[in-house]
Design goal:
The protein has 107 residues and is mainly α. Helices cover 86% and strands 0% of the residues.
Length: 107
């Protein structure tokens, strides 16, 4: 399970970082870039913490997934734009599932 959690967190980090960069490239939104970088760093920290502090890692990634999902559901409702909301909502949901399964399996 350790490798699944780590891979999930790293892929999620790359998606968040890419989404922030895309938001900056398309709309010159520095808020998207900063938000994407901060969220990506949190995902990376969660992944790296798993080896020594699995509970902290799983909790951090779960909170990040929930926060990003809520944020992008609100944005989707407000703007109606499917991109990047839908991919982030789906990815955040998958991250949450992986974290909960790891918690239930006791890491």
């Amino acid at each position: 399970m350790k490798s699944v959690v780590l891979i999930t967190d790293i892929v999620y980090m790359l998606l968040l970082l890419g989404g922030g960069a895309m938001g900056y490239a398309k709309a010159k939104s520095s808020a998207s870039l900063i938000g994407g970088v901060i969220a990506a760093v949190v995902a990376l920290i969660a992944g790296l913490l798993y080896a020594h502090h699995p509970r902290v890692s799983l909790g951090l990634a779960l909170v990040l997934g929930v926060a990003m999902e809520i944020l992008f559901i609100v944005r989707l409702r407000k703007t109606g734009n499917a991109m990047p909301a839908i991919p982030i909502i789906v990815a955040s949901g998958l991250v949450q599932i992986v974290q909960v399964v790891a918690i239930v399996m006791k890491h």
